[in-house]
Recover the amino acids of this structure.
C-alpha cells in the first residue's frame, strides 16, 4: 500500500520539485522563432541514451514518473477534496430549479473547482509550508515530504467522514481495527470520505428541493382549479422559481452554506 500512498500524493511534490528545473532547461534549450522578436520556444527532451551521470538518468525517470502520475492526479485530487459535495449540490440545485442546462455544465464544474480551491486553501498552505518548501530547500527527503503532504489531506478527510462509513470499509478490508486515526490506511479512508460526501450532498439536495416542490404543487393546484389541466405546470412555475431564488439571494445562501458545511 506504500505505492498507493505515493501515487496519491507524489504529484504535489514532484510538480513543485521539477517545475523550476524544467523551466531552466527549457529556457536554455529553447530556440528562436523567426519573426517573433526574440520570443523563445521552450522544449523538453527525454532520453536514456548517452547518460554519463547516474543523476541525469534519475532526473529523466522522475520526469517520466511525474508525467504518469499527472494523468491520474486530477481524478485523485478531486476525490480527496471538497469538489464532490459542491458539484453534486449545484447539480441538484439546477434540477430543482428546472432550468434544464442553465447554468451549463462547464460553469457548474468551474465554479465547483474554484470553491474547492477556496475551501482547501488552508490544507494546501499547510502542504506547501510543511512539505513542498522544505523539500525544495533540501531540508527533508522525498519520503518525509510525502508523509507531511499526506497529513493535512488525511485530517481534512477524517473531519468530513462519518464513522459508520469508515467502519464499513474497515470491515470490507478485513484489516485489524485501528486504535488511532494514524493506523487507518489511506486507501480505506478515501472511499469512506467519498461516500460520506455523497450522503451529505444528497441531504443538502433534498432540502433544496423542498421549497421548489411546494411551489410546483401550488401552481399545479391553481391550474387545476382554473380548469387549465392541459397546460404544463412546469412552464408556469419556472418564472416563479427564478423570482423566488433571486429574491432570497439564493446563490449567496447556497454558496455560503456549502462553504460553512466544511467548517
Amino acid at each position: 500500500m506504500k505505492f498507493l500512498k505515493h501515487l496519491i500524493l507524489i504529484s504535489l511534490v514532484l510538480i513543485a520539485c521539477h517545475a523550476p528545473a524544467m523551466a531552466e532547461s527549457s529556457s536554455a534549450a529553447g530556440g528562436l522563432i523567426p519573426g517573433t522578436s526574440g520570443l523563445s520556444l521552450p522544449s523538453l527532451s527525454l532520453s536514456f541514451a548517452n547518460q554519463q551521470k547516474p543523476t541525469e538518468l534519475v532526473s529523466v525517470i522522475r520526469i517520466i514518473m511525474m508525467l504518469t502520475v499527472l494523468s491520474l492526479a486530477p481524478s485523485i485530487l478531486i476525490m480527496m477534496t471538497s469538489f464532490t459535495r459542491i458539484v453534486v449540490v449545484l447539480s441538484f440545485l439546477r434540477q430543482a430549479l428546472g432550468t434544464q442546462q442553465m447554468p451549463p455544465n462547464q460553469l457548474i464544474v468551474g465554479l465547483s473547482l474554484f470553491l474547492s480551491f477556496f475551501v482547501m486553501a488552508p490544507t494546501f498552505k499547510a502542504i506547501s509550508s510543511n512539505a513542498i518548501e522544505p523539500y525544495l530547500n533540501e531540508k527533508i527527503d522525498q519520503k518525509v515530504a510525502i508523509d507531511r503532504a499526506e497529513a493535512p489531506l488525511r485530517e481534512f478527510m477524517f473531519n468530513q467522514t462519518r464513522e459508520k462509513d469508515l467502519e464499513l470499509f474497515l470491515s470490507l478490508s478485513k484489516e485489524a481495527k485501528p486504535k488511532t486515526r494514524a493506523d487507518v490506511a489511506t486507501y480505506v479512508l478515501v472511499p469512506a470520505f467519498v461516500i460520506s460526501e455523497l450522503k451529505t450532498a444528497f441531504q443538502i439536495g433534498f432540502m433544496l428541493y423542498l421549497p421548489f416542490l411546494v411551489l410546483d404543487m401550488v401552481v399545479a393546484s391553481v391550474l387545476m382549479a382554473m380548469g387549465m389541466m392541459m397546460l404544463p405546470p412546469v412552464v408556469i412555475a419556472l418564472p416563479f422559481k427564478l423570482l423566488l431564488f433571486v429574491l432570497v439571494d439564493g446563490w449567496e445562501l447556497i454558496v455560503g452554506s456549502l462553504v460553512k458545511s466544511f467548517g
About this structure: Confidence is low (pLDDT under 50) at residues 1-39. The two ends are 30 Å apart (CA to CA). The longest strand covers residues 31-32. The CA atoms of residues 45 and 60 lie 9 Å apart.
